[in-house]
Here is the input.
Amino acid sequence: MAKVRFRDVKQGRAPREPVKRKRSAASPSPTPRDADIGDRMKAFLTDSFMILTPILYVVFYLIFGSREGFAAHRAQGWLYILVSYVAISATFVAASGQTPGMRYVRIRVVDRKSGRRIGVLRSYLRQALGVVDFLFFLWIVGFFRRDHRTPHEILTNTALVYDAPEEKAR
Here is the structure.
């Protein structure tokens, strides 16, 4: 005979009745999880090397001729660099929802409410505000929020979430 447990008696279950858990075959896909700070930093560093480094080379050596030429026109050079970076990264986000760094870490930019990819204008605004966040150290806000969202994500109502695992084709 099975041992009667106090927990079973208190919850009104028969002593031999197994605990039944609800399982459905067609369960809805889980809601995407917000990306961690570490993965966000990995994506940013990867994008810095893959997108920003070629832009720096082009601006330094093809536009200004040398580092000394860049130093003589530093403000203009940084404007070229930042505008190019925003344009290229925003184009990636608008086209696929990911930059190369985000693809490497398997995160993507989505609309906070609908969970869908964002449009072209919002991706440009998001990336431009992201540069402002970076320059004025506003990205530190992400360390103090539970969802790790930074001011440029809050203002554009976007989020970085993990990709849904792809099903394997047989």
Notes: Strands lie at 107-111, 158-162.
